[in-house]
Amino acid sequence: MAILGRGSMKNKQKEDELRETNDPKYSHLNENLYVEITAIASAPEAYQRIGQALFEIKRFLVPDYFDEIRQQQLRELG
């Protein structure tokens, strides 16, 4: 599992430097932010592994409008 694309590096200055090199290895830095999940295994095992990875990251990708942090922030604003 890898987070790739613009904004995927903690160091913005280093990301900008790598983007300017035009090295194909860093071409993903010119794309929108995305997650890449890969599995090297037999087909049934790969499907299981990718399914588990999707299950784990789904909570970060789909907003939960009722989570405690969001509710606290709304109370502070109101």
TrEMBL record:
Molecular function GO terms recorded: mRNA binding
Name recorded for this polypeptide: Uncharacterized protein
Database matches in InterPro entries: BBP-like, KH_dom_type_1_sf
GO cellular component, one term: nucleus
GO biological process: regulation of alternative mRNA splicing, via spliceosome
Organism: Euroglyphus maynei
Region described as Disordered: 1-25
Coiled-coil ranges per UniProt: none
Compositionally biased intervals (Basic and acidic residues): 12-25
Taxonomic path: Eukaryota, Metazoa, Ecdysozoa, Arthropoda, Chelicerata
